[in-house]
Protein: Palmitoyltransferase
Amino acid sequence: MPGGSSQSGGRVPSSSPLPHAVVPHSRPLRPSRYVPVSAATFFLVGSTTLFFCFTCPWLSEHFSVAVPIYNGVIFLFVLANFCMATFMDPGIFPRAEEDEDKEDDFRAPLYKTVEIRGIQVRMKWCSTCRFYRPPRCSHCSVCDNCVEDFDHHCPWVNNCIGRRNYRYFFLFLLSLTAHIMAVFGFGLLFILCHRHNFDYLHSIVTLAVMCVAGLFFIPVAGLTGFHIVLVARGRTTNEQVTGKFRGGVNPFTNGCWKNVSHVLCRSQAPRYLGRRKGSQSVCVQPPFLRPQLTEAQLAAKILDNGIQSKSSLEMMESQSCDAEPPPPPKPELRYPGITRGNAEECSLLKKAPPTPTMYKYRPSYSPGENHTVLTHAYANQVTRTSTLQR
Structure:
């Protein structure tokens, strides 16, 4: 853990993704959870679409083309961060298996402490996930999971806000505030230019969009300012609400500028949960019987490794027994450099070459006899022959 050393043992989830990570159990589907996120998506996309259809054409014609371009870029940025905060894993820790640390429920204490920059920080035992929660980790009662650097559970994005998606949530609030201000400001400009004909359809739609933008501006701007203060102080919403570091020193802060750069510019945290793999089903249909082959098929069958079948081997063996041995090759075929006209050389080739004297007396070797005795007998015979020739 950066900036601190652990003083007491305890099972803390590792900071690297595990290949055998346990996927959390499936929760029952509750349609009421999707009502806030559906309403937020409807108001965001619907009001922006009406603004682009009824207000932006007149503004781009009478003022500048940069007005719809600016609002379009801001809206795409808002939508991208909204999707990332909604669908990204916030940093859920995998639960321990049932047979892992099964004795800790009876003998482990409820809290264990670690030291971070000289400050004692408590780690609480999670009876649901069955491990000691790391610092700044908390168990979400809505998602029923332990989330790393837990900030809060946001119903408007239908997801927990943790270490992995807090950056996108913070950028979503900043861009949404800028988008609401732009829609309200350009809509007000359109209304001021058409203040003499409020019964015009474009004016009515623009006024309705301004009401929606003004209604959501106060809570969105207030939440954005609150998170700006939290980021500058290096705190989370959970720590601020519970007053964890009230009257004490926050060991996780690094100064205003470093806290902001840590949220916006740090590398993406690893994902601890393994991806779900689709179940592969193998269909096996017994019995495992090979079809009977005919004699013709067995005779012509040759395996891939070059070994022939039994019947084909028997056929080749019978053919080799019945056939006569081939005649020896002719001298001119064995020695292609010599022609038939040279009769003397041909007669020389038909005769066997003389055998050296020493090889005439070489005894035949048999594996059963003693090699040393045969060697001495062969040496004596060669000596006797050389003496007689002298």
Notes: The CA atoms of residues 76 and 331 lie 93 Å apart. The mean pLDDT is 75.
